[in-house]
């Protein structure tokens, strides 16, 4: 057997370079490069290996380990899980900074290869700098924190272990059933150890999109259930995008006259103005979609985890005769909510369903009712996002909906909006209109504050031809903004709009809705010095990080600022003060947030009574 002598780190990088993926008939590298922040636990091992191939396999330097891993997550999401990035850190705080991103990737089923350095496998110099010692288990390190947030985890205690473990990690990330983050912990001494690796380990391999076929019995049961339905509804999730099933979805709803609604991850599967498109569903859903969900006698969920925001904490599909049919590549998801499972790839399974449904379509009365609901909702969105009469008034604090309306009207055909947490996900899910399947990138499986700017960077890396606009609240901005400097350094131009409502306004509203007093969310309700919390100059801060920026005083100024941002050659930040209290009243559904049973506040007691009443609508 022919071999080549390499360090474990060199072999790892060389194997990654040999992986390719087929996208639109073209072979492209599976890995879009590596993010790296070096420390004593990885600079001499994998750092040296990456330096050897820097011209063929790009290494990107970030300013925060969490930020770079979030960018890697966004890269994979924007590439519809067809390409991956690797992230390497030292042991200790660098590694732990990636755990949040691993949780995000796990929740959202996104592939990212995490390569944290680890303590010495030999334990000869223990305890080393940054090592957290465990009195009862010397084999444990902080990297064990990755275990619950990794689809695959291994610690490379010998260089030859890479031969079996790395392919399994890649296979796990590419499988639509098990897709998620893979973590290979790399002890710093093992990274530098040499081994005679088989040359075959570095043979070029081309991966493709895997499509699992549906079981014939499940397929037959699904067809029978559909044929019996008179008032069907489709719920489109992120799996529709990952399966590249958009043509099949559009043909299916048009042929059978089935209204469709979308989760956060599914948004963009149908153009916003498609006649059978009812918009968002669930807690942050449209009045049209939620009304249809309440009455539907069959709900066909495609490629969705059916999390609580989608199902309104299991209260949305209220028709007692409703059948929940769940088409998903993962059995774990297809079986949720006591659904009739249909385990299979969305694209191929829809094709098989279509071939056997012949002339079946929804009831004509249902079609008429759905159209009425939809027309009313479209009018509500027009009203919510219209430019208010105070557009030129600097004393008027705009709502999130006001700002969304301005940005949406300024958006181009190739615009991608990026967001993640706070009140904006609800407003965008309801109100943002996109006709492009890549036009809406919102991370809401983990609702991770701080994702926005780092995620926008990953989106731009995946689709550099697109105009990436990031909407972010002041709270999320202050949590993680350092990748602004990275975007400038890499020449990846972003437009960032900071909505400054001076605190965590979304949670303040939730606190109030649960009967609580305003406390520790808005800056005005926090423990501070007598002068209060300072007013952050976000424009000045972004400028200090190398971006172009400005503060605008009103909505009219925002419009012209967006035009200047589009003309800029580098990242451009626009800050605008907004009202923390209003949110769009139309649409929405109940969300299960527990309220205290005992409190000295009358408002909490009343909220608990309402909570108990709402809980009765849940099946269990």
From TrEMBL:
CDD domains: TPP_IolD (cd02003), TPP_PYR_POX_like (cd07035)
Domain Thiamine pyrophosphate enzyme TPP-binding as annotated: residue spans: 422-575
Pfam families (alphabetical): TPP_enzyme_C, TPP_enzyme_M, TPP_enzyme_N
Domain Thiamine pyrophosphate enzyme central: 220-353
GO BP terms, alphabetized: inositol catabolic process; isoleucine biosynthetic process; L-valine biosynthetic process
Spans through the membrane: none
Protein name per the record: Acetolactate synthase
